[in-house]
Design goal:
Distance between the termini: 63 Å
Protein name: Polyhydroxyalkanoate synthesis regulator phasin
Strand content: under 5%
Shape: rod-shaped
Structural class: mainly alpha
Largest sheet: none
Organism: Alkalibacter rhizosphaerae
Oligomer: single chain
Number of domains: 1
């Protein structure tokens, strides 16, 4: 259950899911026997608390930072550098 909860927290947090979507996913997991009704209610309450506190945003930021992806600023710098080099080549 713990790994499933972490996966849902990341997935739902990343998508900034509405509570309707949370309810749908939880209901589906209950129907498939992946969690009990009690676990579903607890998970929904925890997701709601995390969503309201913004906790999932910090976890997502941390996860994305660990991927070391290029930022918008990085791409803009590269674009400027390419444009500068293209200008030098066309001289």
């Amino acid at each position: 259950m713990d790994e499933l909860k972490k996966l849902m927290l990341l997935t739902l947090g990343a998508a900034s899911a509405s509570m309707e979507k949370v309810d749908g996913v939880v209901q589906e997991l209950i129907e498939k026997g992946k969690m009990t009704v009690k676990e579903g209610k607890e998970l929904r309450e925890e997701l709601l608390r995390d969503k309201e506190s913004g906790k999932h945003k910090e976890e997502l930021k941390s996860f994305l930072a660990s991927l070391r992806l290029a930022t918008k600023e990085d791409l803009e710098k590269l674009e400027a550098r390419v444009a500068e080099l293209e200008a030098k080549l066309s001289e």
